[in-house]
Amino acid sequence: MAKQYLRVTFYGREAPVHVEIGQVDAEDIMAALKGYSAGGKDIQAFYLFPIGGDLSMLMSVSEIQTVQLTSKQNGDWKPAALSHGGVAFYLKGRTHPLELDYTGHGPLDDMFHGLADTAHGEEVPGCIMLSDGAGEPAFFRLDEIQYAIAKSGLIKRLS
């Protein structure tokens, strides 16, 4: 299956995010971006897709500043990565992600798919609480997510 490469910038973040995605996901994202530029009709608020290796990405369409889609890695390519074994949430106005050594305690899978099922323009559900590997709670607002990177094994139902 053909791979595509996305270089995405988000509002308030200096560094672009580079991800490798499949052709079908690339087509879905491009259709969403075209729909967004035409008034945001009939598109999802978030997209969930595998990004190479054993990682997946959840991305808020309204937080995207630019997207470059290419058939080859280009420029200063550095693929998205996790510095630990769980999930990283990149939130509006925060330089560093909220990283959790997530072990499956809490509704991560349901949260990712719930956001991916939300239509653009609908109100994003309020907040969520997850537990890290030590059982410590992390509580945050879902409408603050620009994007998230997670181990694909934590997402039971991929896109």
Summarize the structure in words.
With 159 residues, the protein is an alpha+beta fold. It has one domain. 15% of the residues lie in helices and 36% in strands. The chain contains 2 helices and 10 strands, in the order ββαβββββαβββ. A 5-stranded antiparallel beta sheet has the order 3-4-10-6-7, covered by helices on one side. A 3-stranded antiparallel beta sheet has the order 2-1-5. The protein has a two-stranded antiparallel sheet with strand order 8-9. A hairpin with a 5-residue loop joins strand 8 and strand 9. The model has no long low-confidence stretch (mean pLDDT 85).
Main traits of this protein?
single chain; 159 residues; alpha+beta; five-stranded antiparallel beta sheet; three-stranded antiparallel beta sheet; 2 helices; 36% strand
What is the helix/strand order?
Answer: EEHEEEEEHEEE
| Percent range for β-strand residues | 35-45%
What is the share of helical residues? Answer: 10-25%
Radius of gyration: 15 Å
Global structural class: alpha+beta
Low-confidence parts, pLDDT < 50 over ≥5 residues? none
Main β-sheet description? 5 strands, antiparallel
Distinct helical segment count = 2
Number of domains: 1
N- and C-termini, Cα separation: 16 Å
Oligomer: single chain
Overall form: globular
For the residues shown, what is the average pLDDT? 85
Strand tally is 10
Neighbour order of strands in the largest sheet:
3-4-10-6-7
